[in-house]
Structures are given as C-alpha cells and as structure tokens.
C-alpha cells in the first residue's frame, strides 16, 4: 500500500455517462469528488462513447424532438420489449425524469442534432447527440473539470471494504501500486461483467465464447463481484443482457455502434443451414433490434446470415464493413459458406409467400407480409429477386449484462433489505433493476442519466 489514504466526500467508480452525471451533480452540491476510471484517458467513457441517442419523454416539441411522447406510451414500449419484466415504479421514475434531463444535458455541454433516418424511426422518441457518445463524454468531462471533479485514469478498483452498514474504504491499483481512499459516499457506476467472457460462459455455457463484445473491454464486473460477494443485494438474471446481432467481422471487443446492422427488416435471415428462424419484420427496428443477439446465439455455431437484394441496399444505414456481393444467390452462398441449393430453396419459398407489395413503406409498419410460410414475415416482405444480391454475417454482440446491484428509488444499495448508508449505484451496474429482459433503443442512457443524477445528489447530501 502506497501513501496515506486520501479522504474524499464522494468517490465515483466508473467513467461513463452515469458516473459523470453523478460526479457533476455531487460537485454542484458542494462535494469534493473523485472519479476512478479503469480505462486509459483515450478510452474513457465506458460504453457511453459508443452511444448516439437518449430516449426522452416529452409533452410537446423539445430540443430536437418532434410532437410528444407520453409517459404511458413510453412505458408501453418498455413493457413490450421486456415482456413485463420490469420494476414499474423505477421504470416510471426513469421515464418521468427523462424530460427534465434533456435541458440539463444541454446545460452541461451536450449538443443535439436532428435524428438519423433509415430504419431508426426515432425523431419523436430519441434525441441524438452531436458527435455521438464520444461528443457527450468529452463534453461532460470538460464540465466536470470546470466543477473541480478530480479524475484518476487507469485506476482499477479491486475492493470496497464493507464496515458494518457502510463502505469504509476503496482499494485500487494504478501504476503497479495498490492505493486506498476513504470516501464519505460512494457511487458505483462501473458497468456490467460482459467483457469477462469466462463469467459469460458460466451463465450461458460454452456458446458465450463465440460472442463478441460491442463495448469497452474494461467492464469486467470486478466491483460488481466484490460487492455481491459481500452480500450486497443483487438483481437480474446473469443470462439476460442487451445483445444485438452485429457484423460477424467485428473485432472481439470495442467494435461499437458502427458494427450494428440495421438491414434485418428488409432481409431474410438464415442460419448456417440456410434456414430462416424468426420473423424479420415483427416490429420497427428500435423495438426489436435487441432481440436478435439472443436469436443468433441460439443458432448453430452462434452465427446468422442476412440476405438482401439490390432494391433494399439503400434503405438502412450501412455498416462499417461492405456487404458481400454476388450476381447470383448461389454465388453469394458460396462466398458466405452456405449450402447453395438450400439457400436457393429458402429464398424461393419466401418469394412465393410474398403477396401484394404496393403498400411497402420502409419507415413504418406497413403490413406487407407473407402467407403460408413459417416463420412468417409480418412487415416489409418483398421478394428477393433483384441482382446483385448482398449478404452479411451476424454474430451476437453483447453490450451490457443485467445482473447487477439492486437499488431503490434513491439509487441506494442494501444488504438484507437494510440500506448501506453511503453506497449508491447508477447506470448499467443497476440497470437490471428496471430491465428484466429485452431492450429499448436509447433507454440505457436514460437509466444512466436519471439514476446518475439521483445518486450524485444523494451521495453529496450524505457527505455534507
């Protein structure tokens, strides 16, 4: 152990959106705040640097958002994707608080831009950051610096010492040394455990070794495991996570938002045996993109393949990787390692099941569907007939896991239903308190912003 332990009013563990919201809020309340960020400075920000929007309730036009998006509609969207597996009281708290968050974000340096087009259909519900998540993260760090927040990078927290009903001290490693601080209040905002593929495999089985990790490689769940081992109340299923189907050529870690594929609604998706396995047109993409990671995970070798034709190529935002291209379906199958005869039969069966396509509308549910085929395609079902043909490989890309710290409406953690007097949690590390399964585009940023602000306020009040 090096140096005499420093004393801080509020220690925030993590360096992404939730951590920054907590740190800025606590500093504005007069607290002396330190952020312990595991990542090096160029990679600060956790998964937040890969985000691009924030889902926001509003009663009328607000910033870049058009029309209105009510609490009840927002909750209905959430209940649909989670199949009702959510803490409704905490969900409503997040939703109601989101409206005041947008102007607060602007006051703290975030700038917004008009919504992106294509399959997103989010102009009414989601506010897009100018410069993406990296722009938001950098703006918040600038504001935090002006507020006097101290940041330690490459500061990997290893242990939070429980002392009765409170956290007594925090140990972390930096520059090859173990250091200790003594905080009056602690906010844990250090994400899930998704970057620890051994932990994923314990939950999912060997299939998890084939998963890709969309976000930061630094979210390994070390703080989460340390607290759970000490009896801090947990929430969530270790198998539940925000997992999407991403380009199979993405790197193992940190591929980010650009590796996501938005072409599924205009495609058919097959497994390695060239068989379709789910309705590609079930709903608009922001409400269904997050189920496809789990769907692909259930297929042989945890892979899938998107097949589209020329008339659909311009209907979605492109991936960072160019699609595979061929003049014939058989040629495409050969390049993708699929059985050509089987792919041809699958496409022919799908084409024969397509009906009248005159009502096709790429940005809304259009009811252009198949008949007499399983699985059906309930929207955007057009025959795949126009060469050249294009394909993408799909792999499961995990964004964050839902096993986490259970919190109350004040973002406070507990042991045996007794509050830990100086411990709060925000962001992905407590998102399982609201997300039992499934995901809604932009909602992770809502959770992080709302509960980060709550945790920062409560932590500062305790310290003061």
UniProtKB/TrEMBL annotation:
Keywords: FAD, Flavoprotein, Oxidoreductase. InterPro entries: CobZ (IPR012831), FAD-dep_OxRdtase_2_FAD-bd (IPR003953), FAD-oxidoreductase_2 (IPR050315), FAD/NAD-bd_sf (IPR036188), Succ_DH/fumarate_Rdtase_cat_sf (IPR027477). Residues 9-436 form the FAD-dependent oxidoreductase 2 FAD-binding domain. GO terms for molecular function: oxidoreductase activity. Its cofactor is FAD. Gene3D superfamilies: FAD/NAD(P)-binding domain, Succinate dehydrogenase/fumarate reductase flavoprotein, catalytic domain. Pfam families: FAD_binding_2. PANTHER family: FAD-DEPENDENT OXIDOREDUCTASE 2 FAD BINDING DOMAIN-CONTAINING PROTEIN (PTHR43400:SF7), FUMARATE REDUCTASE (PTHR43400). This is Tricarballylate dehydrogenase. It comes from Primorskyibacter sedentarius.
